[in-house]
Structures are given as C-alpha cells and as structure tokens.
C-alpha cells in the first residue's frame, strides 16, 4: 500500500488558517505603512517599523506559495518533503534582509553603551518547543532511516520491509514510500543550513545598533528587535514541526495499516511514531501562531525621548 511522504496535512492546516491570517496581516500592514503625523516620531523609527513589517508580510506570502511551487520539484515527493524547511528559510531570509536594510535606522546621532545578549531575546516557550520538537524529529528520523530498505526499483531508503508475525498467514512483506534516507538525508542537510541561517539572523537582529539614550527609540526598537528574533525561532519551529508531522504520520500510518501482520513491538512503534506526528501537528499550529502574532500586534506609539543612558563620545 502506498502512503504519501510528508503529505498535504501540514499545508491543509495552513490553508484553514490562511483566510483569517490574511485579513489580520492586511490590517497590520496598513497600520504600519499609513502616514505618520509630522514630528510624531523620528523618521528612522518609521522606516524601521515599515521595513520590518513589509519584509515579514512579503516573506509570509512567499512562504505560503512555496509548497505549491515545490510540489512538482524533485523526484517522488522530495520537493514536498523539503517544503517546510524551504518555507522557513524564506521567512528567515526576509527577516534578515529587513534587519540589514534598517541597520542604522534606530541609531540616530549616537549610540548608548549597551550589552545585549542573544539569550535575553529568545522567546522561551517557542525556543523550548523548537528544541523539544527537534529532539523528537531526530529520534524518529534516525529510526526510520535505519530500518528503511530499498524500494522495488532499488532506490535506497524508500520502503519498509517486515517479517510477518507467526500465525498471521504471511511470511514477509513491504510497504512504501517510507521516510528513510531518500528523504531524511536531504532533510538533514536542509535543517542544518536553516539553523545556520536562523542563527545569523538572530545575531544580526540583536547586534543592530540603536540610540539607547532615547527612550522612544528604545521602546520601538525593542519590539522590532524581539519580533525579529521571535520570527526566526518560529520559522525554525515551522520547519521542525512540519517535517515531524510528515515523517511521523507517514511512517506511523504505514505501520498501523499493517499492524495485523506485524509483531507487537512494531505495533507499539507505530502508535508512538503516529503520536509524534500528531504532536508535530500541534507544534505546527504553534509555529503559525508565533509567526502571525508579531504581524497583528499593534506597534507601540512613539513618545517624547527621555534620556536614560549616557551616549558614547
């Protein structure tokens, strides 16, 4: 029996949320680009917010289009298998470009002496969920890679062969496609590249200079900076959870469909891996929410600057 590898489940979830997301993003985008009264805030802050929102909106739309573009790319569904990682890379790249384009917008004429650490900007819950999801994904991926076998045309890592349990009426069998090395090795390469890209985006966002002596600049810049880091982490969670959903549900379903002829241990493995896939689906919803919230949260209003730190000379 053929079961789809990294099938449409993750993208169906995105599709269900798409209509509401587009409305909210459109409202937020308009609030960001509408004219600001003269003197309401420094021009650099206005540009900082607009560039950040525009880049993330464009990244979101490009990311949503990516799975459809990848559907026909690669052999035997490999494009769709890599779609969550590619979508995440698009989102991270958009945020990185925004930070580079607005590198000096919050600096003004001076920069206060500040110490900013990456860990202070990482969203704890989303970061924890990402690490946990990555650990489960690695565990499931290692197992499916080790147990996978060549398919009927000799392509490695696309099938699962099994020996029937005693009394089941068969000797052996196989099913596929199965998420073995044919899919997991390219996925590993993609995830490593994504982690490097996301790490770079986070470091750039945290180290971008600003006029820390101006409280108005600090308040707006702090939200933009935290939003940039949160977006990068949420994008990685999207890649991890989307991949875990596809691998877990594909491998788990294949084992459960053949549970009547498999040993008890493999039936338990099927239940556990399916559970991991469902957990990945929950994390996928979390990732989508984490990506959308920074876009629909109203930006803070600028206030009169109140010096609180001595500028560098």
TrEMBL record:
This is Uncharacterized protein. It comes from the Bacteria. It comes from Microlunatus kandeliicorticis. Keywords: Membrane, Transmembrane, Transmembrane helix. The chain crosses the membrane at residues 12-30, 51-70, 76-101, 121-143, 182-206, 227-249, 269-293.
């Amino acid at each position: 029996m053929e079961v789809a590898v990294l099938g449409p489940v993750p993208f169906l979830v995105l599709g269900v949320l798409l209509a509401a997301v587009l409305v909210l993003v459109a409202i937020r985008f308009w609030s960001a680009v509408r004219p600001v009264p003269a003197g309401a805030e420094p021009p650099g802050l206005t540009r900082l917010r607009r560039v950040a929102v525009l880049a993330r909106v464009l990244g979101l739309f490009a990311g949503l289009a990516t799975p459809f573009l990848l559907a026909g790319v690669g052999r035997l569904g490999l494009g769709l298998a890599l779609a969550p990682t590619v979508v995440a890379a698009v989102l991270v790249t958009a945020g990185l470009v925004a930070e580079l384009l607005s590198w000096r917008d919050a600096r003004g004429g001076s920069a206060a002496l500040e110490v900013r650490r990456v860990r202070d900007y990482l969203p704890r819950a989303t970061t924890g969920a990402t690490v946990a999801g990555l650990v489960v994904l690695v565990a499931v991926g290692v197992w499916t890679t080790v147990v996978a076998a060549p398919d009927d045309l000799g392509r490695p890592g696309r099938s699962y062969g099994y020996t029937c349990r005693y009394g089941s009426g068969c000797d052996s069998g196989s099913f596929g496609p199965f998420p073995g090395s044919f899919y997991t090795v390219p996925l590993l390469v993609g995830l490593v590249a994504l982690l490097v890209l996301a790490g770079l985006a986070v470091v750039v966002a945290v180290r971008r200079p600003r006029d820390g002596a101006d409280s108005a600049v600090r308040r707006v810049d702090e939200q933009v900076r935290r939003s940039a880091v949160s977006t990068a982490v949420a994008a990685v969670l999207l890649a991890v959870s989307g991949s875990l959903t596809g691998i877990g549900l594909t491998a788990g379903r294949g084992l459960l469909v053949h549970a009547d002829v498999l040993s008890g241990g493999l039936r338990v493995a099927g239940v556990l891996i399916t559970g991991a896939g469902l957990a990945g689906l929950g994390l996928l919803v979390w990732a989508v929410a984490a990506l959308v919230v920074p876009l629909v949260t109203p930006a803070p209003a600028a206030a009169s600057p109140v010096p609180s730190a001595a500028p560098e000379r």
